[in-house]
Every structure is written in structure tokens, then in C-alpha cells.
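Limitations
The C-alpha cells in this dataset are predictions for the assembled complex, not deposited experimental models. Users should treat interface geometry with appropriate caution, especially where small molecules or nucleic acid strands are included. An illustrative entry is reproduced here so readers can see what is and is not provided.
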Amino acid sequence: MNFPILSSLILLPFIGALFLFFTKSKSENKITAKYVALFTSLVNFFLSIYLWFLFDQTTSAFQFVEDRIWIEGLINYKVGVDGISILFIILTAFITPLCIVSVNNSATKRLNEFLIAILVMETFMIGVFCSLDLVVFYLFFEAGLIPMFLIIGIWGGTRRVYSAFKFFLFTLLGSVLMLVAIISIYWITGTTDVVKLYELGIDTKYQNLLWLAFFSSFAVKTPMWPVHTWLPDAHVEAPTAGSVLLAAILLKMAGYGFIRFSLGLFPSASEVFTPLIYTLSVIAIIFTSLIALMQEDMKKLIAYSSVAHMGFVTLGIFTNQQQGIEGSIIQMISHGLVSAALFLCVGVVYDRMHSRLITTYGGIVTIIPKYAILFMIFTLAALGLPGTSGFVGEFLILMAAFKDNFLVAVLASLGVIIGAAYMLWLYKRVIFGKLINSDLKKMIDLNKSEAFMLICLAIPTLYFGFYPEPLINTIEVSISDLIDTYNFSVASKE
Amino acid sequence: MNNIELIFPEIFISLSIMFLLILGVFKKNSSKIIHNISLLVLLITSVITFNETFSVNPTTLFNQSIVVDYLSSFMKIITLITAFVVLLISSNYLRAFKIFKIEYPILVLSSVLGMMIMISSNDLIVFYMGLELQSLGLYVLATFNRNQLKSTEAGLKYFVLSALSSGLLLYGCSLIYGFTGSTNFDFISTQFSTSEYALTFGIVFVLVGLAFKISAVPFHMWAPDVYEGSPTSVTLFFTIVPKIAALTVFIRFLYVPFLNLIDQWQIILIFMSIASMLFGAIAAIGQKNLKRLIAYSSISHIGYALAGLATGSNDGIQSSVMYMTIYIIMNLGFFSCLLMMKRNNIYYEQIDDLSGLSKNHPLLSLSLLIILFSLAGIPPLAGFFAKFYIFKSVIEQSMYFLAIVGLLSTVVAAFYYLRIIKIMYFDEEKDSYDKDHSLWLKFSLTISTILILTYFIFPGELINVVSKINII
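Predicted assembly:
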């Protein structure tokens, strides 16, 4: 217990990055740098698995808590996990090594710096999910902008500058209001410690404004319609590893924030604003699914599908029912795995053909069959076929939505159908059909590392699709406790 | 004379100036020696200040016209150390422009002396004397590279506008004297009735004069031209050192005699703060010259420092002082980078000259990256904490509008900092710059970068030092 396991999780990638930074001038050998980064992130992954192993599923209290005075009388460096956050930490620690494997040694300029950026990013992302102090949370939440800005801007595609700026300024604009809210909470309650705030509660007369301030930040990050426009740009221009990090983990920060802060700290305001979230979620699900249907760029299609999937997540969170929130978390984990895999799949064909346009491809099923199979699995998982993790999340969310609001649920279900349409149509146009483009014949099938990455992602996708118990067990107690507190404070207000 | 030791620093620095002047006259080619002795003088003065005055109780001297307290000691030490660093890193630049002359360090010393008097002043006349002493030094410094048209223009412009603002300031002083019968801060505070609206005019005129000195909007017009035209080493001096002194006077003038009139001046400060933050952020977007850009950026930063002052609380003053301290460190780092952009003895100062810097100079550009993100106020760098303290004290007084405008303008400001980063990191490279920089320049860049980067590990240290400032 005395071993500061969470701080180690946060600091380890950073130490790896420092190591890379100080050794870069000596070793010209690029492979070594990659192995160092991979090794660091793998150690971190095993550490996170060990954390899961130690984790006590029967309590909703925060575990592995470290509390140190940071700024006297103002901020404590406080970290800890509960059922809600632990899965995100494991997801982060799982995705990062895959990102590092996916980096193309020969084609990536400044490989060393790229690996440093990814590792620093991992530090910040784990920090976001661990922190139990609002200021510490904000620090990690915002700090992540720096490496991501550089990843998109330096290693991105042709319109990378525009996308990097859009990404940075959109998210920064969303977040500054959250900072005002955090400082206001400090003056209202005298603390920014999340655990203490859960106990104290925040006066209902302040909650609505504070909720909106947090919402402005999370809505941009989620991203929710209508502030989602940065996401397709950022995704399309980012390098594969960047897109994977962005889709798999960065978007989850906001979903996590909604559960931890919006529901946890401002229950009565959440109650007030639920219709707003419902409306925006339904618009996101249907509208962006329709947009996705019309995309010609594969990455853009997947980016829009991410917006739609995150629409389900926000919908599920604000149903404020056991199944809804569980479903949202599972949907986020599943989307983390599946979107990461889909971006990797696009990356695979992009490395060979240097085109992301759907029309470039077609009829490649006979040329690269292994790829076709794995791509199939992830396509089906993205559209939520039973037996994949995508199904579990969507199903639970819709179930909760039906209990709460019939119309919203029906509209959301419509989104599922459109979702199936665009994913299957994408698959059909890329993999099946007539082989027209003769250049495609030269394509080679997955090499070892690509196959390894995709299989690594396919296993949990299928496993949790058939047997989601481990996930649900982990989050169950924390969520039911959260809902109890929520209902209690909403009821006491009335 | 009791407590004469409290002004030993000022006495020592005045005697040194006289000695150096005589030395400069009688010894040929003495510019190098005088430069080094001046550095030593600054260092010794800061040690004396630390030893003699840092831990004494607030004391007034000379019929209460000079005050020595924690605020004055702290600000004096910061002024001296910054002036030391500025002088230290500018010697190569001065040599390159053939302006490495004896007058330069002596002028710096005399304007530092003026600032120290300003910082300690507890009387309108003493304050004005200090102000003029420092300004006279600065006028000459601005035009120091007299062979260049722009430098001469900068000096002239600064002189004319500054004289105008001094006139306004004196007019304000005379109004205050007329309505209270005294020029002493302590005495004034007991002498007026708060219903005296004419007094407000006096305050406003003095504020105008002070706002000019720290280049707060709407009295900022001189700053971009003067910053661009002056030699870079002088620009560095301009952006940092006079502001420390002027901010101290701001604090003392508003909070010692006129705290009761806070309703009158608070709204002025809020306006200046908001206008500076927004204007600085928006106007910097179109700039092509790095020195002009940093001029607008410093206008915007002064806006944040003023926001802290507008709160009317001790917390606010402390946060402003903290903001200035961190701002100084960031600016020293930024200008160290600027002074390193040299190729064959030509210094470059356009933003485009940074293009692709990251390929040829990875460490330099990484430092600049960190400094720029910090200037933009992105966590976990020091610049974020500086803003955090400001907004913490602003929100404590429920001034939400000020806080929200301030934070939104950081987003606008982030755009132009990002643009520099974009040019450094995303664009194609140009020829590389010289790599044989003086040791001190590298040293100052490294130290400031490390301080900015690791500030979040020891945030308490600075707070502990600053939290002893107690004016109200």
C-alpha cells in the first residue's frame, strides 16, 4: 500500500521520455529509441494490470490514494482511483504501447521526438484519470494540449497547421471557463479536493453556472455537436498514432469528466440540464452519422462516427441509471479499442497506397485477406454487433434511455441503424467490389507487427463482447454509489 | 540620523556611479572594466539590500518620505538582479553594434537608482524625483544606437510622450497637494474626506502618468515603436525593469493613501486591465517583428498584473507581484533566445527568421517552445500559475467579468504564441545561426527555462516569499 503505484504510473512514461531526450544525440540507431519507449510503456501497462489485480471491487471509496501538500493551504496533489477511473487508466496504458508499435520507423521523421511526445502524452492522460483535485485535474487536462498540438503539427498531413491550431484553440477556449468554475468552487467551499467536495456538496444556487462552465470544456473535448468540428480536422491530419491517441483516450477524458464532475459535483444542475444533453446527443448521433455516410475520406468517416459514438456516451451518462452509466463506460472502453483499431487499419492501407480516399480502394479482399478479416471484426464492433464490445455498451445505453425517455431512445436507435449503414458501406467499398485500381495488386498483407497490434485489439473487443462481467464488476459499486448520492441530493433539494 | 543603514544600497550605488564616471573620463578604453564593475556594483547592492533591509520592520526615513519595508526590499532586489542579468547578457550584442561604451552601464545604473528611489518613495515629490531620474536614463538608452534612424526615433518619441505624461502626473500631484495639504502618503491618508470628488481628478491624473510608464492601454502607444527601435538589449531592459518599479509605485500610491477611495479608482483599473489584456492580445496577432510582438504581449501581461491590483486585497497585490516575478523570468528567457538569433554579427528579429529553427537548433527551439507556452499560460508551466494566482484573487472579490474576459483573452493570445511555435517547428528551415554564444547567454536561457519548467514542483517557495508583502 505504501508503494505510490499511481504516481509511478504517472511518472514512468515521463521518465522514459526524459531518458530518450538525454540520449538522443548519442545513438543514431532509431530502433533503440523505439524499444526504450516500448519498454517503458509496457512496464506501465503491466503496472496498470497489477493495479487492477489489487483493486478492491466491493467498495466505492477511492483506493491507492496519495495525498501530498503541494501548495500550502491551496492545492493538494491528490490522486486515487475508483471503479469509474481504473478502466480508463488501463485503457490508456494498453493503447500507448500499441501506438508506439504502430510508429513507422523509416517513414517517421524525428522519431525520437515523436516517441517523447507520445510518452509525455501518456503521463498527462493517466494523470487526468487519477487526479482527485480539481486543480490537478485541470493541470493534466490542459497540459495534454501541448504534446498533441506538436504531434498533429509536426507529423501531420498537408493541412496540419490549420488542424493543429483549430484543435488547440477550440479546446483551450472550452477549458478556460472551467478554470473560472474551479476557482469559484474554491472560494465557495474552501477546497478543490474532489472527495471533500463529494461530502460537502455545493450549494444548489451556484450549481447551474458551474455546471455550464464545466460543460463548455467537456462538450468541446467530447466532442458534442455543434462544437465537434475540430475533431474531423484533427483526426484527418494527425499521424496514425496521433489519431489513435486522440480517438481512443483523449475523447474519453470528457466522458470521464461528465461522470466524475458534472454528475458527482452538480447533481441538481445535471438534473436541470439533462434535456439539453439529450437533445445535443440525439442530434450528434443522427446528424453526424448522416455526415459520416457521405464521407469520401476514410479517416474522416471514422472521425464522424466517433462523434456519433460519443453521443451515445453522453446520452447514457445523463440517463443517470445504473445501466446507462455502465453502458457509457463500456461504450467508451469499447470505442477506445475499436476506433484505435480502425485508425490503425486505415494507417495500414495508407502506408501502402498513400491515400485515404475510399475510391482508391475496392476489391482488395483477395489481395490482403488477413487484413480483410481483422477489418471486418472492427467494422462489426463499431456498428455494435452482438458478440462485440460495441454491442454491450450501446445496448445498455439504449435500455436505460428507453426507461427514461421513449422518444430519445427511438431516435438514438435510429442512429444505430445509420451507423450500421455507413460502416458496412465503408467496408463494402474498400474491401469488396471489383478491383479497378491495378496498383492495389502490389499491396502486401499485414506484416507481423501490424497483425500483432490488430489482434491485440481484437481479443479484448471480442472477449468483452461475450463476457463483459469483469468490466461491469469493476465499475458496478462505484456507479451505484454515485447514483445514490445523486438521487439523494436531487430529492433533498425538492 | 537613525536607521541610515536602510538606504545604504542607494548611497552605495550613487557613489559607484560617480566613481565610474570619473574612471571613465580619466582612463582610456575603459568600457570593459566599467561594464564589469557595474555588474559587480549591481550584485553588491543587491547583497546590501538583502542584508540591511530584507527583514526589518517597516520603517520610514527622512521625515517619512522614504519607506523601507518588505515590499520595497523585495522589489529592489528583483530590480537589481534583473538589471544585472540584462547587463550580463547584452555585452556581446553591444559589441556587435559598436555601442559597447562606458555610458551604457552607467546609464543603466543611474536609472536603476531612480527605480530604487521610486520603489521606496512614500512621498509624491520623492516619487517624482525617482521617476525622472530613471526616465532620463531610459531616454538616452533608447537612442543609444544613434547611427540608426529607428533608434533615434524611438528615443525622441519616448522622450516627448514621457514628458507629456510626466506633466499630467505632476498636475495630478498638485491637485492632491491642493486638496490635502501634503505630499506625504501617510499624511494624505488621514487628511481627506471621501466625499472630496475633486481629489479623484488628482488620482486619475497620477494614474495616467503611471499607466504610461507601464504601457497600459490606453497609454500604450509609445511601446511598440520604442521597443522595436531601441537596441534589443535596451528593449529587454524596457520590457522588464521599469515595470517593476512602476508597479510598486502603483501599489503604494493606490493602497497607502487612497484605499478608502477604492470605489473611485477600482473601476479605472478594471478598465485599463481589460483593455490592456484584450488589446495586447488582438494587436499582437498581425505583427511580424518579434520585438513589436513582445511589446504587445507585454501590454497584455501588464493587464493581468493590473487585474490583481484592481481587487483591493492583499491577495491581489501578492498575486500581481508574483505575476511580475514570473513574467520577468519568462521575458529574460525569451530575450536570451532573441539575442541568440545571430548570423555573422547580424542580429535577426523577424518572426520569419525563426522558420524551421527546430531542425538546426533543437535545444534553443525547445527552450523557446517552453517559454512561449508558458507566456500563453498553458499548464503545467510557470506562466499558468502566474495567471492562476491572479484569477484566484480576482474571483475571490467576485469580479467574474474581469476573470472571464481575462481568460478569453489568453485564448486569443495563445494564437500568436502558437504562430511562433508553428514557424519554428512546422516550417522549412533556413540557414542555421551562430552557435558560439557567450556562456552567460546560454546560462540565462537555461536557468530561465528550467525555472519555468520545474516551477510546478516547488510552487510554494515563491508564495512563501511573496506572502510576506503586507500593505493594507
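Some entries come with short summary sentences. For this one: The first strand of chain B starts at residue 59 and ends at 61.
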